Amino acid sequence: MNNLYNVIIIGAGNIGALFDEPSSEKVLTHAHAFLSHEGFNLLGFLDVNEEKSRKAVSIWSGKVYSSLEEAFSLDKIDVVSVAVPDEYHYQILKELSKFPVKIVFAEKPLTKTLQEAEEISELYKKNNIPVVINYSRRFLPEIQKIKENIENGIYGNYVTGTGYYGKGIIHNGSHLIDLLRYLNLDIKKILPLDSISDFYEDDKSISAVLIFERNKPFYLQYIDCRLYTMFEIDILFERRRIRLIDSGFRIEEYEIQEDRIFKGYRKFTKVDDISTSLDKSLYSAVDNIYSYLTKGEKLYCLLEDGYKALETCIKIRERIK
Fold first, then answer.
1. Most CB within 10 Å of its CB: which of 15, 26, 99, 199?
2. Integer Cα distance of 13 and 57 in angstroms
3. What band does 306 get if pLDDT is binned at 50, 70 and 90?
4. Helix (H, G, I), strand (E, B) or coil at 296
5. What pLDDT does 3 receive?
6. The pLDDT value given to residue 2
7. Span 260-284, mean pLDDT?
8. Exposed / middle / buried, residue 25 (Cβ in 10 Å: 0-12, 13-18, 19+)
9. Residues 252-261, mean pLDDT to the nearest whole number
10. Distance CA 273, CA 298 (A)
11. What pLDDT does 174 receive?
């Protein structure tokens, strides 16, 4: 590739560096995504816990930086990846906005509060720095195809749906909310049902009925993450049923057929079982960033998308109060 962009990663924990290693078949970390892409040069890591940075460097190579000031004074940096815990997103993004960087790739959620998100949005707009938010399912070609089919009317109108998640409406529920938005299923009304603090005290998991256009419901249901991890979506259209299961590693598609046993009845029959590229979504996101930098192609998940997902989650949380 003609263009090579220098990258540093802020946050040397699991999603930043530790979920996999260079020889892993799956791409589960920011480090692996950038290192395996020919268009990027991974310079090193920055973490408040320098021991974590040293561990990351022992796996992926590179430098250990003690601060952003040091990193930008030592090297020309084009891309910064932010992979820190939720509560530090605002602080890191605010500080990072002061530095000359071509693009930022940040873990979701954008921030913890709308006030923080608004400030970050203004800063990055003012400094003309694009931000890509890692709502990972947006980067899957299999999900992009479903979006295309919905927009082209292949499935018919939306009828109803159900989604399951846990570990906080903002932390994990926002994945589900963002995916609904991406599929053009816009929420018009929120009817809260129940809530539980299953992981974060300040970020409850919430069940609610979300009302879309034509007064059609979507049943958002929390699953206590202390029992097990679950992320699924089941969407019924007039002519198709789409099930996103196993966190999105699989998609089942059903079409309507005449019941072979009971004459006059019609039912959904599974016609496709697709293994998705979710285990390489980070690489797809990095490739999307490269295509933007080199060819000006559209970014799949912008700061604005992160803001709107957070805004909806905050609305759901306010309703439950």
1. 15
2. 12
3. very high
4. coil
5. 77
6. 61
7. 96
8. exposed
9. 95
10. 29
11. 98
* 151/153 Cα distance (integer angstroms): 5
φ/ψ of 10, rounded to 5, equals -95, 115
Q: How far apart are CA 178 and CA 309, in angstroms?
A: 5
Which token pair is 28? 């589960």
DSSP annotation of 76: -
Mean pLDDT of the chain: 97
CA separation, residue 166 to residues 45, 62, 92, 196, 278 (Å): 30, 35, 26, 9, 19
Taking alpha carbons only, the member of 194, 174, 192, 200 closest to residue 318 is 192
- Write b or e for each residue in 204-219: b if 16 or more Cβ atoms lie within 10 A of its Cβ, otherwise e: bbbbbebebeeebbbb
Residue 119's identity, in one-letter code, is: E
**Cα–Cα dist 251/247, whole Å:** 10
- Decide: 311 and 177 in contact? Cβ < 8 Å: no
Query: For residue 321, what pLDDT is reported?
Result: 76
CB 159 within 8 A of CB 215: no
Residue where the block lists tokens 């970014």: 299
Range 62-87 average pLDDT? 98
* Integer CA distances (angstroms), 177 to 100, 224, 233, 260, in order: 32, 18, 11, 37
- Provide CB contacts within 8 A for 317, sequence distance 6+: 169, 170, 204, 206
Q: Is pLDDT of 178 > 90?
A: yes
Q: Stretch 147-166: mean pLDDT, rounded?
A: 98
